[in-house]
Amino acid sequence: MRIVKDFFDFYINASIHVALSVCALTWITLFEFDISQETTVLYFNFFATITGYNFVKYFGLAKFHHRSLANKLKVIQVFSFFCFLALCYYAFQLEIKTWVYILILGVITFFYAIPFLPRNVFVDNNQNLRQISGLKIYVIALVWSVATVLLPLVDNAFLLNADVFITVLQRFILVLVLMIPFEIRDLQFDSLKLSTIPQSIGIRKTKVIGFVLLVVFFFLEFFKDQTSSVNVFVLALFALITCLFVLFSKKNQAQYYSSFFVEGLPILWLVLLLMYGFF
């Protein structure tokens, strides 16, 4: 039983779960815009997510405690290195124009983790984008929406029309909502300097904002020129399930409430879409 838990913890801590969620959202984009399920961009997003997330999460630890790293963290470092090599392999199979978006996302990820701003802006020494008051959640939403919508469409030479930008907006809103349970969970740990939404307006009002955003997320679907009854029905069901997870989120959550169940909601969305699309 201990081995199973260790493996599951590695699955979560090594960012494999979040990478699968990013792949699920990428696949949903390909599905919605009726693009053949080519795998290069899916593999790229998978390995890029693991590399990027682990870089952001463990950069400080690796920098200051390199010789005394715990064995589990060393394993994650080695795993991340091989994922980086796989990232490079699949990146060179993507179209040149896709690289513009990749470079932009890479720069954002780099400055999200690396200190580069004046110290007098912060209460601590972490002078990076992650620490700018109120910015963290929007940076993550921007990166996810670009990576899971624009990257696969640009790489497949799809015309960027109004439907595409509505989808980008939907994806941006969705990630904001999915971050709410994490921000509520982290209330007891986050510095007040971060000015997260729950810190600024409280848990109850944050949940109300999450509900409103989900309503907007759903009704934006009706502004698209091309949609289907399957998309609308699955979107409504997914929005309802997501709303429940936001509603029941709290500071003292079960260990895997956010890191597994909330973070895995995009995978559930993909499963529902494929199931109803199949039948």
Distance between the termini: 38 Å
Major beta sheet summary: none
Low-confidence stretches: 120-124
The arrangement of helices and strands along the chain is HHHHHHHHHHHH
In total, the number of domains comes to 1
Compute the number of helices. 12
Helix % is: over 70%
- Rg over CA atoms: 19 Å
Query: Mean pLDDT, nearest integer?
Result: 85
Structural class by secondary-structure content: mainly alpha
Number of strands: 0
Description:
This protein is an all-alpha fold. The chain has one domain. The chain contains twelve helices and no strands. It has helices spanning 2-13, 16-32, 40-64, 71-91, 96-113, 136-155, 162-185, 197-201, 203-219, 229-247, 257-262, 265-278.
In short:
With 279 residues, the chain is mainly alpha-helical.
Furnish the topology, listing elements before pairings.
Blueprint: H1 2-13, H2 16-32, H3 40-64, H4 71-91, H5 96-113, H6 136-155, H7 162-185, H8 197-201, H9 203-219, H10 229-247, H11 257-262, H12 265-278
Helix pairs in contact: 2-3, 2-6, 2-12, 3-4, 3-5, 5-6, 6-7, 7-9, 9-10, 10-12
Which features would summarize this protein structure in a list?
279 residues, mainly alpha, globular
